[in-house]
Design a protein that fits this description.
Distance between the termini: 63 Å
Mean pLDDT: 86
Radius of gyration: 22 Å
Strand content: 15-25%
Number of helices: 7
CATH architecture of the largest domain: 3-Layer(aba) Sandwich
Number of strands: 7
Low-confidence stretches: 1-7
Order of helices and strands: HHEEHHEEEHEHEH
């Protein structure tokens, strides 16, 4: 059966679309971003939306990670099968994934707040003789968005203010800009106080932790 659309029906559709656009234009950037994230989440495989960690007590730095949840292992496995999954996860999920990875390594792990994190997203501490403490800054970037020398220098600056921190780590789903490894200001921190972990190192690291134990 052929459907016939009257000019009134067409006009009504145009009016509704126009009103929706006007209402959308009145929304704050924060609300628009939230709506866009909700729409993006609707298109994600269900496993990517599940919690990868369980959190415990609050600390002055953030929240303690109590355990690694089963979906963490499943997401890491998915990444090995389809590396494109890496770019379907938002920045906070990536911080949680990295926090879980340190937990798998046996560290006491704190996940810092979403805002005002003071230059570190994950704090990993191994107590005992020769206490080790890491600050990890997670950069969930698209492939063409490289971590810059200024980003690395910023973490090096954080380390200067925290001499009790053993090492700072920048973990990224992308790569580092050309010339970073030859930058004299950065080289003096490497490899003992600063580690750069690009995607090509990150994914095998996660895979090995998911398979261990």
């Amino acid at each position: 059966m052929r459907r016939h659309f009257s000019s009134r029906m067409v006009n009504d559709s145009i009016i509704h679309a126009t009103l929706a656009a006007i209402n959308r234009s009145k929304l704050s950037p924060a609300i628009l971003a939230s709506l866009e994230q909700q729409k993006a989440n609707e298109d994600l495989p269900g496993i990517l939306l599940q919690a990868v960690i369980t959190v415990g007590d609050k600390t002055k730095e953030g929240e303690l990670i109590e355990s690694v949840a089963i979906p963490w292992f499943e997401i890491i496995q998915l990444m090995q099968q389809d590396p494109g999954i890496v770019y379907q996860l938002d920045w906070r999920k990536w911080e949680e994934i990295i926090a879980a990875a340190y937990k798998r390594q046996g560290f006491e792990v704190e996940l810092t707040p979403r805002s005002n994190d003071k230059g570190r997203d994950v704090i990993a501490t191994s107590r005992g003789v020769g206490c080790v403490r890491y600050f990890d800054q997670v950069k969930a970037y698209k492939p063409n968005n490289l971590v810059t020398a200024n980003d690395v220098r910023a973490l090096a600056g954080v380390l200067e203010f925290h001499p009790n921190v053993s090492k700072g780590v920048i973990t990224t789903t992308s790569a580092f800009a050309p010339g970073i490894y030859e930058d004299e200001d950065i080289k003096r921190f490497m490899p003992y106080r600063l580690e750069l972990k690009p995607k090509e190192v990150l994914l095998p690291w996660l895979a090995s932790l998911a398979q261990s134990g």
